[in-house]
Amino acid sequence: MTRPDDADPRTPDDANVPGGRPVGDSGDAGHDADHDGAPAGTPGEPVELGWGRDPGDPAGPAAVDANSTVGAVSTAQAADGDDAAGDAAVGAADERPADARSMKTVPPALWVWFAAVLLLVGGLGFLAGDRFGPGGGAGDGVNLAGATAGSNDGGPVAKEDGTYDATIMGPRAGSAIATMEDIAEVHRRDEADPFALGAVDAPVVMTMFSDFECPFCARYAQDTQPNLIADYVDSGLLRIEWNDSAGTPPSAQAAQAGRAAAAQGKFWEFQDAAFDAAVAKGNGHPEFTVDELVEIARTAGVEDVDLFKKQIEDGTWEKPVQEANAYAQSIGVQGTPMFVIGATPLSGALPEENFRDTIELELMKAERAEQ
User: Fold this and answer.
1) Helices H, strands E: what count in the chain?
2) Structural domain range at position 358
3) How many domains does the chain have?
4) Measured between alpha carbons, how far is 131 from 173 in angstroms, rounded to an integer?
5) Which of 51, 214, 232, 332 lies at a CB distance of 3.0 to 4.6 Å from 15, suitable for a disulfide?
6) pTM of the predicted structure, to 2 decimals
């Protein structure tokens, strides 16, 4: 059963920002309820396209418009019984040039040569666009705008005692989000953030609101995130920042476990292991026990598992999780997973192409802003 905090990718949840558009509203009216019941041929009505004659056309080539003079004998000639005029018309039709040819008479070898030329021209055009196009040679479709990659990717900065600040949450320090115009402030770009992955000075940041108990979050984490990391994060083009949005007691407990792992510098390893374990339990809500969370921590490489377990049981990270939930609700996040890429919100476990297209668009904006 799907809970209200799980955004179905087919019908992503909208999230209202105070004083502005919903955070999850990307402006796409493709699933707008106003389109239901629209007459055929209007937006919202699927149109079937096919090949061949239109079903509304006359049945065959013999059907000719009554007002047309093409292929028809003048009604005045017919009324006058002018057989000579009719014979002349027939004779004129028979007197075609002797060298008139159809497409079928072209030698097959010529068609082959013509197809080869088209393939050659098309291939040269592709290579030219690939080499000299906007991406400066990025033939894999990544960073087509040629944006400058970030270089500050030393990972989160540890505290003096060697642990990490697992209390971090909320938007950029010193900022607030009141309307959609402030939405880019969700990106913290904090060097000490253990919930961030990628260069702090990457041209684009993707902030996510997620839940370890959410099956759609698991789908994104397993199907899409690894490819985004390989193509964009590892190359310094994208930074990913996690935010808790845990609406149930099992979700809150799992979020506290995530912060216990983050305090030891193992949040992203814990995230991977947790979603793997969630999928292994089925497509529903795993409702992890403390012992299961401890096993996930071991898989993730958390060094002090005893401390990890103690912090879950004594509620060390309960308050930061509550504050993170309040922050998510304050900006209108109503379902998970929820993303803000640059200044563009996305909602749900959408196809990977949606993320790539949005990242490329935001890279283009970043490149233009530098010029």
Assistant:
1) 11, 5
2) 182-370
3) 1
4) 42
5) 332
6) 0.66
